[in-house]
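Task 17 of the worksheet. Students: predict the tertiary structure of the chain below and write it out as structure tokens. Keep your answer in the requested format; marks are given for formatting as well as content.
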Amino acid sequence: MRALFHLILIQCYGALGILLFDPSAGYGAVANGGSLVVQIVSSGSGLYALYLISGSPRAIALLKQSAPVFILCALAFASAGWSVDWWLTIRRAMLLSISFLIGIAMVGRLGTTGAVRLVVQSMALTCAISVIAVYTNPELAIHQASDAFQKVHAGLWRGVLGHKVELGSFAGLTLALIAYFRGEVFPNLAVAAGAAACAVACLIGSGSATGLTIFATLWVVLAFAHRVALKPRGVRGAALKSFTLGLLLFAVLVHTGTLDTLSSYLGRSSDLTGRATYWPYVQQVVDERSPWLGFGYGAGFRLVGPLAAELSDTRLTEAHNGYYEMLVAFGRLGAPIVFAVIALFFWRARNLLNLDWPRVGKFTVVPCCLLATQFFTCHVESIILEQSGIWTMLFSLSIALTANLKIEHETVMRSILASVMAAHTPPPHPPARLPLAA
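Model answer:
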């Protein structure tokens, strides 16, 4: 089962499509399941996930507790009614639903520790395959000057993920998780060092500043959250409130444009790439064409991209911003629903850190930290509700881990309470002896 999960995860990351097809023909469509073969593999993965869930009481319990996530799937399917390409929206909504089912099935069957180990190991394996591909098939794994597009990145690594930013972000996440868990994911020191070396090679070879930022952000957040989780309850509560307020402040700075203004004083764009000047044109197109409903999940930018290019002289295939991507997909009515559901799961994951655990493990803080890192990163990349990919898989994992850790905590607390009650319950009195008959 673990070997099959590895293959499924590599498919979810987008690597299987790149290995099977030519990335220069359109890495985005291939990596996100655009080919018929990858669509069939994805459908099979979804059926397998349903089979695993149906045969596991724990997985069924996780499915029930994770039910709000399927509001997002329902919204994605519903948007096909006003999508600029309804069939593309249906297909991508199906891939999104499959990703959520895989995360629930994996945690339900393997448990918290087993699921996290499997995901990190599969990520390290994907980095290793990318390194091998760079030296055995450089035309596949390195951006070429002869590519149909993205020629500006010629010479930089894209591995088996199709683009340097994809590879850099993936490697940054992998390296941060390996550095945080260390021997708990790779018990063998030599294997752990090799996995970390592959992630570092991909991070450097891709030349991705986003990847370096993701690595630093996730590693710091994980280390900080784990230290906070070890503190007394009062200290934990204050630290978590401050952390949550910091996230809210970041959201306000982004929404009001203050972050862009502050960054301009430093001579940099708030997104590190200069694309922040492009987003107002996306907003303008949405406001003029379909402000309330958007243009459909996974398909809206096919219309918005060319129109925004006419206004800005910048042609992009996505907004490179998760907030604007949701606005394009669902408009002003649907986008707040998406963020409300994500906020709900973050709140649940955050509350795990405020519970009293008999022993605080490193896995307890993972869901909250992954969701927080995704929140920061979606300011510079369109990673919210990707139909497939590493961010969607980690989002699915975080949701399932949160539900599973809550169940584990309740089970442990009931066990402790039963033990305490048993220790303080006096033994039953022996029955009184009746006097012997004369």
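Marker's comment: Residues 2-408 form one domain. The chain has 18 helices and no strands.
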